[in-house]
C-alpha cells in the first residue's frame, strides 16, 4: 500500500501526508479539496477505501482487481467512478505499456488508483507538492489534469509508431524479408490495441464534456472537451497508421510474388535454352556405327556454331519479350499528399498541458 | 425430471425439497422467496410449470425445446422471462461447452431451467443449502447470482484460448505446418462463437442494469451493471484474440510463400549453374572425328578448370544477389505494447463472485 | 385462378367453397372471419380482389406481379398488406425454393396470395377443413399461423445446409479438389440468400410484435414475437454456417498452397541431387585423349561410390531440413467449442407449430 | 435551350408550347398545373428560371452545372427541389448510362431539368400530348410519374447485368482467362455504381413517401412508397449480383491456382522420373578403361529393362498418389437455392407504370 | 506574425491595415464587420487574440499549435470556433497539400487563422480589397466564403487523382510492374486521406446548415447546405476512385499470377519434351560392348526420326490442351456504365464560387 493524501483546506493551505484519521475528517468536512492517490492497490487498500469513504463494494473491487478494466464511467449519485486508460511512457526506454487509472470524483475529493507507478501521476504529484496549483481550481479540474496527463502520453507513442512505420516502409521497398511481415503485423496489432483502448474512452470523455454530470462544472467541461478532441486526433492518426501498415503489407506480398516471378523466369529461360541444346550434344554423343555427320570435317564446328547462335537468338528473344532485363526497377511516379503527422512530440510537453493552471 | 425447490419464508427459514403442493402454496403466498431449478427439462416439466405457475405457453415451450435459444428477455408484466448463455466449464477436462439457462423472475420467485447439469448452478445450490445466503437479498439478487456465475466461467475459457493462441504463434514462427492453419481457423471459429453468444447478451444485461423493469431494484441494478462490464471486457479480450488469430494466419501464409520462394531459388540456382556446364561436357562427349581440342594435352584440365571456376563464380554471384545465404532469419525488431491478458484465472474465483452476499 | 374461401360465421359454423357473392357478403358483414387464399395469382384475381374487397391498386398489382417483392408491411388504415418470405420445402426432394406469401389482414378477414402451391398453406387448409381450428382465435392468429408455418420451413433447410457443410469440411481436409471450392461458394451464396430474405423480415416481425398496428391484439403480439425470435435464431445459425464456409475456403486455399509447396520441394530436391551428378558423369564421358583418371583401375568404382555417397548425403540433408518426409500430416490439436446446431429437424414439426390452437 | 411547357388549366384544357409570358402567367395564377421541361440546360435556362419562377440561385446553379449532383431533396417552403438519378436506357444499344433529373415541385407547377434527352421523359411527354393524363391528378402525381419512369429503367439494366453474370460464370468454369477477371471487375464496378446512385435515393423517396412535405398529398404518398419499394428491390438484386461477382472472382482465382498446381505436378513428375535415369545412362557413357559391366553380354539389356521398369513404377506411384490422372474434373454436388431473378424485363413495361392514371 | 485586418463600418466604408487599437475598437463597437486574418500563427498571435478578443485559452492554443486539428465546431455562446480542412492547391505544381483554417465567427467579426499562406484565402483578400464584396452580406457569409473557397479546391485534386487512376489502369493492363502496385497503394492512401479529412467535415457543415447556431442566419444556412452537398459529392467521387483503385489492384495481382502461370507452362513443356529425349540419346551414348542397335545401318536415322516425331507430337498435344499459344489476349467484353467523373475542373472556378455576392 502506497497511499498519499493531500488536503487543500478552504483557506488555501496544503496539508500533506495525512493520517487515516485526517483523511476521514477532511472527507467528512465537505469543503476544500482532498486528493488521495493509491499506487499498487491491494486488498487492504480496498478495505481502507470502503471504511473511510464508503464507496460501493463493486467499485472498490474494480480498483483492487488485477484484471484489465474497460474504460467506463459509473454515476453513484454523489460521486463518479471512472476508469481511464493511457500510456505509461518510460522515458528513454523502448518499452511502452498501457496504463489505467481509476478515479473517484466527488465535489470535494478525488481518489485515484493505479496498479503501477505512473509517470503522469508523478508529474502532477510534483506540481502539487510545489504550490498545490493543480488543486486550486476544484475537484473536476484535478481529475481533468490526471486524465489529460495520462492521455497526452499517447501522442508520443503514436509518433514512435510512425517512426517504426517509416523504417518498415523503407525496408519493404529495398530489402523485404520474412521478418518484415512480422514487424508489420506487430505494429498493426499495437495500433489496434491503442485503438481499442481509445475508442470506448471517446464515449466516456464525450459524456464528461457534455456536462451530463453535475459534478463537472461548465468551465471544466470545456477542458474535458479538449481531451475529447485529443482522442479524436489520436484515433485519426491511428487510422492513418493502420492504412500505412496495410499498404506496407500489400506491397510486401506483391514484392514477394514479383521476386518469385523473376526467379521462375530465370529458371524457365535457362531450361528452355539449354535442355534442347543438351539433346543436340547427346545425339552426337551416341555410339551408332553409321552416323555420317561424325565424319564430316566441319561437323563439330557446325554444331558449335549452331549452339552459339541458338543461345544468342534465345537470349535476344527473351530480352525482347522482357522476360529478362538488367534492371527492372522503375521509380513510382505518383506523389501522395503530404502532411503526414511528423515531429509531433517536440511541442507536446508540460508547458501546454498545465497552461491553464 | 430433476426438479429442486427451495423456499425462504419471510421469517428467514429455508424449506427444502418441496413437494408440488408446497411449491404452489409458496408461489401463491406472494411473500418470501421461492427458487425452483429444473435440470434436463422434459415435456412433463413444461406441464408442471404451466400447471403451477401459469407461465405463458410459448415461454414454457422455449424451456422444453432442445433447440438453442438466442439470449433474450421477455416482459410478461408480473414476471420476466430471460435466456442467458455462458460456459459450462468441466473442471480439469479440456472440453468446454456453451450452456444456457432460462430464468423466470418474479418479485417472489425465481425458476431456472437448463438442459444439462451446470457447474455454476451446482455451486449456488451448495451455498443455498449451507445457509441460504444467495437467497436472502431477494429474487433479483438470486437471478443476478445465477447469471453472474454462468458468465464468470467465460473468462477462464478465454484464458485457455489465449494459451492456445500463444502456442500457435510459437508454432507459426518456428514450425509452420498445414495443421497450424487448421488450428488457427478452429480457434478463430471458437472466438467467433463466444462473440456471437456474448453480443446479444450485452443488450440483455444493459436493459436489466438500466432498471427498465420494475422487478429489478436499484441496489441490484448496480450488480447487473457489473455483469454488463464483464461482458464488455470479455468482448474486448475476444476481439484481441481475433486480431491475434488473424495475424497468425497472415504470418503463416506469408511464411509459406517465403519458403516456396526459397525452394524456387535453390532450384533456379542449381539449374542455372549445372545445365550450361552439362552442355559443355556433352559437347566434348560428342563423337565427331575431327574435334581438335580433344587432342590437346591440357584440354581436359582446361575444361575441369572452367567448370570449377564457373561454379565458384555463379555461387558468388547468387550470393551477392542474396539469392542464397547460410541463414536468412533476422529477429523481428519492433516490440509491441505489453499487457496482453495473462494470468486471468487465478483471481477470478468464488471469493469474488459472491463477496456481496 | 385457384381461389378458395372459408367463412367462419360468428356462431362458429364454417362455410366452405364460397361463391363470389358469398365472399362479398361475408366481407361486408364485418363479423366472423373470412379467409380467402389465391394460388397462382393472375390478372383476373387482381380484378376480383379490387372488385370485392376494394384493396388499393398498388397492393393488388404487387400480388399480381410475377416479380420478387421484398418483405414489407404497408398500413392502409383499416387493413394491413404484408409480404412474407420463407422456404417451400418439397418433402423428400433435394430441391429447396424460396417462397413468398402476400397477406391482406383486416379485423375480420385474411386474404393470402402466392404464386405457387405451398406446402405450409396446404397444411393449414387441411387443419381448417378438419375443424376450423386455426380460424377460431381471430384474424391476427390466422395470419400468424400462415407466417409461422412459412418461416418454420427455414430451419430444416438450414439443417440440410449444415449437413452439406459437414461433408465439405470432411472433403476439404481429406480430398480437396477444385470442385470443392465451387461447392463452398455455392453453399455460401445460398446462406447469403437466406440471410437477405430473412434480414428485412426481422424488421417486419418486430413491428408486428410491438403491436404498432391496432389490428394485432395483445395476445397475438406474443406469438408474433415468437416468430421474431425464430428469425433471430435462423440468422444466428446462418451466421455460424457462413463462418464455417469461410473457414473451409481458407483451409482449402492453404491446403492447395501447401501441396504446391511440397511439389516444388520434390522437384528442387531431385534437381539439386541429380543435375550435379549428371555433370560428373558427363565429364568422364568426354572424349579427350589425355584424361588420366580414365586409366585408373578403380576410377570407375570411385565415381560410383562418390555418386552413391552424394545421393545419400543429399537425401539425409534434405531430410534433416524437413524438406522431405514420409508423412507430413499432424492432427490438429485444438478442439473448438461443441454444441454446433445438430439434430434440429426432428423436433420442429406440426406438433409445436399449432400447439397454441 | 430546349424548353417545353404545358399548362392544364383548372377547366381541364391543355395549353401547349407556351411562350415565356404565358408560362409566367400560368405560374402566377396559382391554379391548374404547369409543367415545364428543360433539356440540355444552359446558362440562359438558368436566367429564365430565376426570372420567371424566382427559384433560389443555388438551386438554379445546380440545374445549370454540368457536374454530377448527388440525389437530394431541399425544402424551400413553398416548393421542393429534388435531384433524382436513374438509367437512360437507349433501346437496342448496349450502352447504358446513368441519368439525372432535377425537379422543382410546387402545389401548381412542376419544372424538370435534364442535361440530355431522356427516354423516360419523352414517353411521358407523349402521354401528355395525347390526352394530358399524367397531369390530371395534380403536381405531386406528375412528379411521381417522372421519378417512377426514370427509376423503372434500372430494373432492365440489372437484368442485363444478370445476363452478363451468367456468361461470366459459364466462362469462369469452362474457360477461365485473364480477360475474365477484367470482365468480373468491370461488372462489379458497374453494380457498385448503381448501388451508390440508388442508396441515397432510398432516403429521398422515404422522406417523400412519409409525407414529410405538405406538397405531397396522402394519395400520392402511397405511390411514392411504391417507388421506394422498387428501390429496395433494386438494392436487393444488386447485392445478389455483387455476391455472384465475388464468387466468380474467388472461383477464377482458385481455378488459376489449381491449374498452376497441375502444371507443377507434371514438371515434377517428369523431372523426378527422367533426371535419375539420365544419370544412369550418363554413368555407362563414361569412358573409364575398366568398367566391368560394359563387357557383360546382357548389361545393355539389363539397363534398358531397369529404365523401363523404373518409368512404369514411378508412373504407377504418382498415379496412386493422385499426382497425375486422366480427368480431374468432378461435377460440383451442391445445388443452391433456386429463384434467382430472371425474366424480369418482360412484364415491367408502360402498362404497369401508368396503370394508376 | 502576418496579421491583416479589415473593418467594414456600418456606413459601408472599408478600413484597411488596422492597428491593434483600431481592431479592438472595431471589435468592441459590436456593429459593422471586422475580419482579421492571421497567417503563420505564432505564440504572439495567441497572446494578441487573447488580449483583444478574449477568446478562450484552449481555442487560442488550438490556433497556435502546429499539430493537425481534426475538423470540429465549438460553441462558445457568443461566438463559434471552427476548424475546417481543405486542399491548398499550388497552381501548376504537382504538389497538393491538405490545409486547415481555424475560424472564430461572431455576429460582427470573423477571425481566421492558418499556418501557411493559402491560395483560397488570398483570393478572397483580393476580392475584399477590390470592393469589399465578400464582407457586405454579414459575418456568416464571410465565413461561408472562406470555407467554400477552401473546400472547392478539393474537386480539382480529385480530378487529378482521377487522371492518375486512368494512367494506372492503362498500365495495369498493358505493362504491369512492381512499381504499379506502389502507385496504386499510394493513390489509395491519398484517397483515404481525403476521405478522412472530409468525413468529419460533413458533420460540421450539416450542423452549420441546420442553423443549430443562432449566428448563422436563415439565408446563409442555404449556402452552408450547398457546401454540405459539395462534400457529399466529393465523398461519392472519392468512393468511386477507391473502387477503381481496388479493382486495379485485383487486376494487377491476377495478371501477375497469370504471367507466372504462363512461365511455368513454358518450363513444364520444355522439360516434358526434352528430358525423355535426352534419356534416349544418353542410352545410345552408353559404352556397352554388346548393343545390337548400334550396328544397325539405319539406327541413327531411326532415332533422329523418333526424336523429331516426338517433339512435333508433344508440341501438338500441348497446343491442343491450350498450354501454349501464339496470343492469349482476348479483349474484355463487358462495357461498364459510363459517366465516370471527367472534365470536372474547367467549370469549377471563381465565377461559380462567389456568384452569390
Brief synopsis:
By secondary structure, chain A is an alpha+beta fold. Chain A contains 11 helices and 7 strands.
| Largest β-sheet summary of chain A | 7 strands, mixed
Question: Which protein chains make the most extensive interface, counting residues with beta carbons within 8 Å of the other chain's beta carbons?
Answer: A-B, 72 and 62 residues
Query: How helix-rich are the residues of chain A, as a percent range?
Result: 55-70%
**Proportion of residues in β-strands of chain A:** 5-15%
Mean pLDDT of chain A: 81
Instruction: Specify the oligomeric state.
Output: homopentamer
Find the structural class of chain A using helix and strand composition: alpha+beta
Regions with little confidence, pLDDT below 50 for 5+ residues of chain A: 327-331, 335-357
Q: Measured on Cα atoms, how large is the radius of gyration of chain A?
A: 35 Å
- Sequence of secondary-structure elements of chain A: EEHEHHEEEEHHHHHHHH
- Counting DSSP E segments of at least 2 residues, the number of strands of chain A comes to 7
Shape assignment of chain A: rod-shaped
Spatial strand order of the main sheet of chain A: 2-1-3-7-6-5-4
Count the DSSP helices of chain A: 11
Give the distance, in angstroms, between the N- and C-terminal Cα atoms of chain A. 30 Å
Amino acid at each position: 500500500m502506497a497511499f498519499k493524501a493531500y488536503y487543500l483546506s478552504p483557506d488555501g493551505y496544503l496539508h500533506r501526508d495525512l493520517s487515516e484519521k485526517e483523511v476521514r475528517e477532511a472527507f467528512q468536512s465537505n469543503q476544500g479539496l482532498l486528493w488521495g492517490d493509491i499506487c499498487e492497490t491491494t486488498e487492504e487498500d480496498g478495505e481502507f477505501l470502503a471504511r473511510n469513504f464508503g464507496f460501493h463494494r463493486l467499485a472498490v473491487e474494480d480498483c483492487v482487481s488485477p484484471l484489465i478494466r474497460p474504460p467506463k464511467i459509473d454515476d453513484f449519485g454523489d460521486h463518479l467512478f471512472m476508469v481511464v486508460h493511457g500510456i505509461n511512457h518510460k522515458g528513454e526506454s523502448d518499452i511502452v505499456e498501457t496504463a489505467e487509472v481509476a478515479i473517484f470524483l466527488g465535489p470535494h475529493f478525488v481518489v485515484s488508483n493505479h496498479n503501477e507507478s505512473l509517470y503522469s501521476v508523478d508529474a502532477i504529484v510534483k506540481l502539487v507538492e510545489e504550490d498545490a496549483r493543480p488543486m486550486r481550481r476544484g475537484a473536476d479540474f484535478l481529475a481533468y489534469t490526471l486524465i489529460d496527463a495520462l492521455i497526452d502520453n499517447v501522442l508520443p507513442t503514436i509518433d514512435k509508431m510512425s517512426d517504426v512505420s517509416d523504417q518498415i516502409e523503407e525496408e519493404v521497398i529495398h530489402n523485404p524479408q520474412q521478418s518484415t511481415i512480422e514487424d508489420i503485423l506487430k505494429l498493426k496489432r499495437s495500433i489496434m490495441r491503442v485503438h481499442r483502448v481509445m475508442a470506448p474512452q471517446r464515449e466516456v470523455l464525450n459524456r464528461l464534456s457534455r456536462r451530463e454530470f453535475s459534478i463537472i462544472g461548465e468551465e471544466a467541461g470545456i477542458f474535458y472537451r479538449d481531451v475529447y478532441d485529443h482522442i479524436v486526433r489520436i484515433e485519426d492518426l491511428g487510422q492513418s497508421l493502420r492504412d500505412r501498415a496495410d499498404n506496407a503489407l500489400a506491397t510486401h506480398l506483391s514484392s514477394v510474388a514479383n521476386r518469385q516471378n523473376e526467379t521462375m523466369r530465370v529458371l524457365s529461360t535457362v531450361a528452355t535454352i539449354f535442355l534442347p541444346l543438351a539433346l543436340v550434344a547427346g545425339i552426337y554423343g551416341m555410339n551408332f556405327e553409321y552416323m555420317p555427320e561424325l565424319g564430316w570435317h566441319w561437323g563439330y564446328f557446325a554444331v558449335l556454331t549452331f549452339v552459339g547462335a541458338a543461345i544468342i537468338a534465345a537470349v535476344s528473344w527473351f530480352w525482347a519479350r522482357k522476360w529478362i532485363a538488367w534492371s527492372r526497377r522503375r521509380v513510382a511516379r505518383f506523389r501522395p499528399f503530404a502532411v503526414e503527422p511528423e515531429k509531433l512530440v517536440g511541442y507536446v510537453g508540460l508547458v501546454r498541458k498545465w497552461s491553464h493552471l
